[in-house]
Structure to design on (140 residues):
């Protein structure tokens, strides 16, 4: 939109300024939406298809989440680790979270021997409480 402005010399000047306020408002709203949605997506770190159960308990408080994918990939709090680094990473995360609880989030098709290795490694790292993540079975 252009406005004409007359000064004392009868010369017309065009004033063309872009109003930045609406643009900044939209950018801030988008930033907030991305921040909220990205924090919800960080939960696991691996693509895990949880097994189904009839009753699932909800554990409150800080816990350490260790994920195991069906191809054998391991993640601690969403960060992929190698089996050789697992004990050190679990020990460090247990200390930083100030907890002794570990939730094992394993794919329904993952191998049981890998699960036992992870639980044994977590116990050696100082974990005392274990939970296995599952999703609630839907009524059919």
């Amino acid at each position: 939109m252009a406005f004409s402005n007359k000064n004392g010399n009868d010369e017309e000047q065009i004033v063309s300024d872009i109003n930045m306020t609406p643009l900044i408002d939209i950018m801030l709203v988008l930033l907030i939406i991305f921040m909220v949605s990205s924090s919800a997506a960080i939960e696991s770190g691996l693509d895990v298809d949880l097994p189904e159960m009839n009753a699932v308990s909800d554990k409150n408080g800080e816990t350490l989440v260790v994920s195991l994918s069906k191809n054998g990939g391991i993640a601690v709090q969403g960060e992929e680790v190698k089996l050789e680094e697992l004990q050190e990473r679990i020990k460090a995360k247990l200390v930083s979270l100030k907890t002794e609880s570990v939730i094992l989030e394993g794919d329904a098709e993952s191998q049981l021997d890998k699960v036992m290795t992870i639980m044994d490694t977590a116990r050696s790292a100082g974990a005392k409480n274990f939970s296995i993540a599952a999703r609630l079975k839907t009524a059919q």
User: Anything to note?
Assistant: Residues 9 and 95 are 76 Å apart (CA to CA). The chain has a mean pLDDT of 77. Strands lie at 3-6, 12-15, 52-53, 64-68, 74-76, 79-81, 101-106, 129-132, 135-136.
